[in-house]
Amino acid sequence: MTGIVDRYSPETTPSATRRDFPEIGRRAGQFPRATLRDRWTPDDQDVTLWCSNDYLSMGQHPAVIEAMRGALERFGAGAGGSRNIGGTNPYHVQLESELADLHGKESALVFSSGYAANEGSLSVLAGRPPGLVAFSDELNHASIIDGLRHSGAERRIFRHNDTEHLGELLADVDPRRLKLVVVESIYSMSGDTAPLASIVDLAQRHGALIYDDEVHAVGMYGPEGAGVAAREGIADQITVVMGTLAKAFGTVGGYVAGPASLIDTVRTFARSFIFTTSLPPAVAAGALTAVRHLRSSEQERDRLAENSRALHDQLRRRGLPVRSDETHIAAVVVGEAQRCRAASRLLLQDHGVYVTAMDPPSVRPGEELLRVTASASHTGADVERFTHALDQVWTDLDLPRTGR
Ligand code: PLP
């Protein structure tokens, strides 16, 4: 037994991919301030976070917390079952109706996470129609890859954001076969946006359906926070939009919205929806409040846009190599696992800033990076302090810069 178990020990994992998780206590009412402890700093250390996905700080919004408290007292802690077996609470239904309305779609379905939403929906949407071919961007998230794999459908992978390549692959498939193009509107690890208008054009020309993961856009971009396709005025051309409740909406859960017949098929067959307990009512209530709030308030989006602009301006001015400056995600490339970890460690030790070092399998080997995220709660002074700290770390580690 010992011999077998030892084969799983961390020593068999190359140190570059072994992961440590610091304990982070985000302080409600004071995001992005937090306390952090890890194996090097056993006592709580005050830090400023620059890698949280709670982009609009809805996780600490008083109305969200109040809604969750109310639901907790009214309905108790858990949902009590899967959606099918007694676990459908009024808040799940209201949330789905609100999300469908936000995206201008007939129907929506909430899952326990964005991962489960992609995995479950794509395994059904790509897998059920016989002979369907799925076209997927090479940088699509693991949950998309897994959903398409589990669908068993034939897959064609196109080069990242390369519509010419996508066009070639579409043209190469028998026009009678059903086609599904799967993209993200904002790519998580590079912070760039998909050329959605061209993708819509191509899809229409080839009679393909479009599945658009807007996880890093919902709440933050477009009218009422409906996402990038809505901002570009083409949301009605997207067949299925997928989003999360865990990032700009500040809680946890994922969803898809689209034509009633497709969503109903997902509801009936998606294993990650059926065979699991539904979200706690308090979470659904908090998410519902966050979605409603962000449909009517521009304040958080304006602050995020302002901070994103300031962050990218400063990074550019200091010659720090960022993949793209299009969004609130700044992927600052180091390109080597040990040095990327060293940069994250120095930021913490010397400057009281926490940014996770992203390494494989989250990014490809040789593309290790610091995934920096602006939020609505950072101040102008935070941006200044952070970029100064990053600049200092780049000098300390003699890391490469751009334009110099
Ligand atoms: N899709 C993309 C593009 C993501 O980046 C993520 C998570 O980071 C997910 C889906 C999964 O979302 P969730 O965190 O809600 O499971």
Question: What would you note in describing this structure?
Answer:
By secondary structure, the chain is an alpha/beta fold. It has 14 helices and 14 strands. A 7-stranded mixed sheet has the order 4-10-9-8-7-5-6, sandwiched between helices. Strands 1-2-3-12 form a 4-stranded mixed sheet. Helix 4 packs across helix 9 and helix 12 packs parallel to helix 14. The mean pLDDT is 95. The site of pyridoxal-5'-phosphate has 13 residues, from helix 4.
Question: Key terms for this structure?
Answer:
404 residues, alpha/beta, seven-stranded mixed beta sheet, four-stranded mixed beta sheet, 14 helices, 39% helix, 16% strand, globular, binds pyridoxal-5'-phosphate
Quick description:
The chain has 404 residues and is α/β, with parallel strands linked by helices. The protein is 39% helix and 16% strand.
Provide the β-strand percentage band.
15-25%
What are the distinct ligands in this entry? pyridoxal-5'-phosphate
Mean pLDDT over the full residue set: 95
Number of strands: 14
Helix and strand run: HEEEHHEHEHEHEHEHEEHHHHEHEEEH
Terminal CA distance reads: 56 Å
Q: State the strand order across the main sheet.
A: 4-10-9-8-7-5-6
Instruction: Give me the number of helical elements.
Output: 14
User: What's the overall geometry?
Assistant: globular
Residue runs with pLDDT of under 50 for 5 or more positions:
none
Query: What composes the largest sheet?
Result: 7 strands, mixed
Q: By helix and strand content, what is the structural category?
A: alpha/beta
What percent of residues adopt helix (DSSP H or I)?
Answer: 25-40%
